[in-house]
Amino acid sequence: MTDVLRRGRASLAFSFLVQGVAFALLVTRIPGIQDRYGVSDGMLPVFLAAVPILAGIGSVSTERLVRRVSPSRVLRWSQPVVLLALLAVGAGRQTAVLALALAAFGLAVGALDASMNMLGVSLQRAYGRSIMLSLHAAYSLGGIVGASLAWVGAHYGLALWVSYLPVVLVLLPAALVGSRWYVDGEAQAPVEKGTGAGQGGGLKWLLPLCLVMTVAYIGDSTVSNWSAKYLQDVLGSSEQMATVPYNVYMVTTLLGRTVGDVGVRRFGAVAVVRAGALVAAAGFAVVAVAPGAWVGMLGFTLLGLGLCVLVPQTFAAAGRRADETGRPGASDAAVARLNVFNYVGFLVGSPLVGALGDAWSYRGAMLVPMVLVLVTLVHARSFAPGADRYGGGHERPRTADVGRSSNGL
Question: Which chain positions lie within coiled-coil regions (predicted)?
Fold first, then answer.
């Protein structure tokens, strides 16, 4: 059974990595996509907003779908759709093709994100200790790889399909082979009466975690969409130097998630989330008052180290608290609904900072996500329902929680 769990963890981590590569290849080549299809500056935000909106629909649909089929099956077939949709984006010519490809990409990404995190939560339950941060570290690594490949394609003026085709040819069969070892949850943990914070009341207990997820992605989208402009226009850096902050952010996110599980096991999820929120707030403060580009990059470095723990731990907390309800399927439903607020934060963050920057100042705009991320401190106790089984607690994992391989389902 240990071998089953190890193979399940490795295969799921690879899926996180593949998703990071695919998403980075899409978002970092947006100027090239715009040029290929002749999309106007006015229409571009419509196309970009459609992806997270459809992803939210895909995530909600996955909540219903997993009542009939296992999350491993949803992930097994949604990941190829994402990769093929990416290739279609690079190979098409007409705007209608772009619209259909992005629609397929968005819906499949929603199903993929939800099912990946469902499997991550159930696998962590089987392990009996924190592993979610390491899984999301694989996503960060994939993002770095994808962004690097996109840079190569842009640098050498390669057509989009030339950049995308080799990636799809390598990753698609590898993902299908790896999907044989996904691990689905076998059974929910027994519930101790009086300890389930999520008992009763539907999923109202999920609302604080939804807020934290939204805030985390407002911060993340602020970095991904505004770091280069901020460094160049506000802090006076060169165009080349302005590309550095996002790369630094991704690297520090990877490093923070790689070691973060150790911190959760030793100090508990609540302490790690509080520390992450404080570090992230400090990062925004440094960015807002930075006198020059190098100090600004220090702020973006702190943001990577702080924000990186929030999303994985929010998914993990949702799974733990859902288990306490004692209702079959509660964990999967909670993860699917929580995942929607990933896209809400992404949709809100970039326009919010842009509007505040134009109406007020970009330095002042950076203080808004700083204040929002501090809201996490108010809801930090939501990360420690009942016994903190997966991080910092003393309760031993239950053998009933051990999963089974999806191979042969």
Answer: none
At 18, give phi and psi (nearest 5°): -60, -40
- Position 399 confidence tier, pLDDT thresholds 50, 70, 90: very low
In this structure, the number of other CB atoms found within 10 A of the CB of residue 36 comes to 18
Which of 262, 356, 255 lies closest to 306 in space, CA to CA?
255
SS3 355: helix
CA distances from 328 to 28, 124, 145 (A): 40, 17, 38
Report how far apart, in Å, the C-alpha atoms of 209 and of each of 178, 230, 274, 395 are: 31, 30, 14, 23
Query: Distance between CA 342 and CA 319 in Å, rounded?
Result: 16
Mean pLDDT along residues 263-287: 96
Structure tokens that stand for 394 in this block? 């003393």
| Predicted model pTM | 0.87
Q: Average model confidence (pLDDT) for the chain?
A: 87
Provide the b/e sequence for 40-49 (b: ≥16 CB within 10 Å). eeeeeeebbb
